[in-house]
Amino acid sequence: MKEKKPEILEIFGLDGISIGRQERNEFYAEIRKEYKQTNRITRQVRVVRFLLMTSDGRIYIQKRSHKKRDNSGLYDKTVGGHVKAGYSADMAAIMECQEELAIPGMVLADADFEAVRDDIDLSVIGIMQKIEQMNRNMSIRQSADGSSINQPLITSFYVGYYNGSLRFKDGESTGVETFSLDELESLMRKEPERFTEDLRFMINRFRDYLVPLKDYRR
What we know:
Nucleoside Triphosphate Pyrophosphohydrolase, 5-stranded mixed beta sheet, 11 strands, 25% helix
């Protein structure tokens, strides 16, 4: 079996300026210690977050595994992941599609998206657009022991479409469900504790993009 390489991340200050590189597990051990001691975190890394929909606008929502250290058992965005050192956010989004969902994906500029969306076969490939990048986007990570940290992140957000089946490859999810925006918002109002803060934030901030493909506009 091929040995898994350590995941190296680029580290940034809260001002968004790079201050070096570090192995992922080391970084998280240090910021958890910092948060426990000072109730704040003074460094951040780059991540991608995206919501995929079917062409008729049903949103793919994953159910996080109970084995996960953070936010275990909660409904979450379709996929999120770290941007490795040396990668662009777009490349990280494409790699997350491959590594987490076992599907090919493309990040398209506005003109390319408009050109292909009526012709591309969404049963075999997903198409996405980058909607926003935020510095110091705060993400609440809840642990099974009841503790949590409020982590700043440089986050690139994507919205996209895919009509094929999703298959989470690494055991991080126990499955995926699809919801219309109305169904999802109704359930989030009734049972907010079942959802991650990341997902609630994204649904609220980007709801105007969560529409059937024929109605999608930047």
